[in-house]
Every structure is written in structure tokens, then in C-alpha cells.
Amino acid sequence: MFPSASSCNGQESFRQEHGMERQDRTDIAPPLKGSLDEDPQAFEAAFTANFQSVHRFLARRVGSALADDLAAETFAVAFRRRDSFDPSLGEPRAWLFGIATNLLRAHWREEQHLLTLEARIVGEPGPPVTESDDDALARWVAPYLARALGLLSQDQRDVLLLHAWADLSSEEIGSALGVPAGTIRSRLSRARAELRHYLGDFDFDRWLFYEKDAPTLEDRER
Fold it and tell me: DSSP state, 58?
């Protein structure tokens, strides 16, 4: 997934507001060489490396329009609290996703509404004939996954999606949310169990059901 025009516009607006120079490469996260508080270039490097990935994460959860505002707010909060980041923890990526996730908590209803709408989509009765078509497979499974995610608690969903969509480890998620890693692993395990209970024999790597026919939403609600 490539960044939308709106995400790029939001990124540029934040740069202008905070007096940052534009940098062309945004897909490489350079090592953090200084304190975010003491070295302005360190914060700019963190912003350049992480804005688009944070925006994509937010857009997948609450839609691109709201993600524009939340991504900008994430980095505004990070800028104000940059003295609280501990460089000994490594790169600020997990810290930024933690801020974004905390901001999302005020928009639980919007996320639930989006999941409900997506769960109502009626697509093809079976998976695409060509399994290599990743986009088609994702569209086909989206309603099932949306309904399943909607059944998770907020804590479970946050941990699961930080792991699956932000690619954070249990330790990184724990550090980002201020929760022990053991608690994160427990929440992640319960979230996976809930999804498997709802989705059945589902291969998350290939986005396919093992059964010959995919379960209907009515089947899983019984």
C-alpha cells in the first residue's frame, strides 16, 4: 500500500508548521544519532522515517480522512513530549505507534462503525481463482476479518494490530503502551484465539480458508 495524497499533504503541512526541511527519502529509517529533545535533526529524522507508516496504520483502522488529523496529532504530541523519549530503548518507532494507539482510543466508535460497514460487504462466494492476486484475496477476506476484529476488546485489538500491522514485537508493544511484555503476550494470545474461534481454520499467511467453502457470517454468529 502506497501513501495517499492526503497523507503526503499532512506530512508536508506538519513540516511547514514545525519549520522542517523536506527530505525525499521516507522509506529508510536511519539510526537515531541524538536525543529527540536536544537534537532537532534527530526528531526530523524520526518524523521523515515514520510518518507514512503511522498514517497507514491509522488509516487502516479509522479511514484516511481521520487518519490525516490523527497522524499530524501523533507527531505534534511526540514533538511536545520529545524530552520523555529514552534513546536507550532504541529507535522511536514503537514510541510513536504507542502515541498513535492512545489517540485512537478516543475514536473507538468510529473504528467500530468502519468495521461494521466493511463486515456488511458482500463479495464473491469464494476466493479468487488466481491465489497470487493478493489484492483480490484481501478484498474477499476483508468482511470476515472486519467482523472478527469488531468482536475483540479494545486492548486485544490494539495489541493484535500493533503486532500484525505495525510489525512490533511484544516487548516493543509493551514499551509503547506502558504494559509488561508478559501481559502483551497474554492479550495477543487471547486475541488470536478469539479470531480463530470466529474464523475457523484460517491461514493468515495465505489469506485462505482451509475448508472447501468459506464460512458465512451467519455460521460464525451461531
Answer: H
pTM score of the predicted model = 0.72
Q: Which CATH number do you get for residue 66?
A: 1.10.1740
Please check whether residues 84 and 126 belong to one and the same domain.
no
pLDDT band at 47; cut points 50, 70, 90: confident
Cα–Cα distance between 113 and 120 in angstroms, integer?
11
Cell of 206: 495465505
- Please check whether residues 126 and 71 belong to one and the same domain: no
pLDDT band at 20 (very low <50, low <70, confident <90, very high): very low
Whole-number Å distance between alpha carbons of 132 and 134:
6
From residue 146, how far is each of 73, 87, 139, 142, 152 by CA, in Å?
26, 36, 11, 6, 10
Region 188-214 average pLDDT: 70
Cα–Cα distance for residue pair 17/87, rounded to 1 Å: 25
Per the structure, the complete domain to which residue 211 belongs is given by 120-221
Contact 176, 162 (CB under 8 A): yes
Q: Residue 121's pLDDT is what?
A: 75
Task: With respect to residue 115, please indicate whether it lies within any of the assigned structural domains.
Answer: no
